[in-house]
User: Fold these one by one.
Assistant:
Number 1:
Amino acid sequence: MNPAKTEAILREHVRLCSDLHELFIEEGQLMRSTGEPPSEEFLEKKKKFVGVLDKGLELLRMINESGEPVSPILSPLVKECRDKIMKLMIVDRENERLLLKCSLPPRMKEAYSKVAPGQVARAYAKFAK
């Protein structure tokens, strides 16, 4: 595959990852502000994005299936793609935790209440001896 086409595909993937990152950030903010799982409207918005992401992944497969190594000139772009994916994974994991917390019955939510400053340090100090 020619390097210009590979670069275009990678740049598109970075853009898709950035858009998905913004969507995940919005999802987290919604759950933090409302204390409830995302609305059906928001979930539909996410579902629409899946089709776009599938097309982007198909383009990445084309690069992989070409059998040609990616040009060293594109290494920074590949690194940027990897970095974006790692950010997505971190934010998605945070959102999963928020979703679990939002979905719990009221009595179980109490167990996940905020920790007082220094409480964790005191707990660890008990076992540090």
Note: Residues 28 and 94 are 8 Å apart (CA to CA).
Number 2:
Amino acid sequence: MPQAPVLASLTAAFAALSACAQSEPVAQGDFAPSYEGIQTVLLQDDMVNFRVALQGGRGNEDVEAYGRCAAAQYALIRGYGFARHVRTTVTQAGNTWRGDAVYLISAALPPGLRTIDAEVTVRDCGALGIPTI
């Protein structure tokens, strides 16, 4: 039965991955940003601009995540399930980070590589403590 060792290996790998998933989240250290708000500007029926600001960000990724969370919640509010990232620009002045993001929202999964499932993203944002609209 050559399949038995393969099955045992897969079972062990699954157990190891399950243990990783159940471990405590990676410590965020002193990271405690202050989310300063979201401004939403409808550019076209399906194109939306999100302007976000936060204090105490660690870099562009934090600002981009805030914009992504805003876009996901907005898509759900409008009755859509998906969004596609068009662009995000980030600026920093002192401890304040600002983002200017544009997303296309749609009912069906849009083409492209930078798409998000709005429902999953809003759930993830909540788990990370990132506010949405």
Note: The chain has three helices and five strands.
Number 3:
Amino acid sequence: MTDIDPQTTPPLIEFPCRFPIKVMGETQDIFATTIIGLIQTIVPSFNAEHVEMRASTNGKYISLTCSVDVDSQAQLDDVYRLLTAHPLVKYTL
């Protein structure tokens, strides 16, 4: 397997960009507003207009696709860390 050197390897994503983040959790009334609020702590301009919501077939789970305008890999990583650490979040892709 070849190692990737972050110093010499070009980035896979060009920043700034709008990046889709899928967040899944159990269906709860506060899920979407909680996720939006979490993202806004890192990206204050993020709002509900940038969220697509879909319920699972049986309605037990909900997934949000959040299109987030990020300026850097570090900012994107911060959003992922914040989301994955929250107890309402089951998966983040």
Note: The longest strand covers residues 17-26.
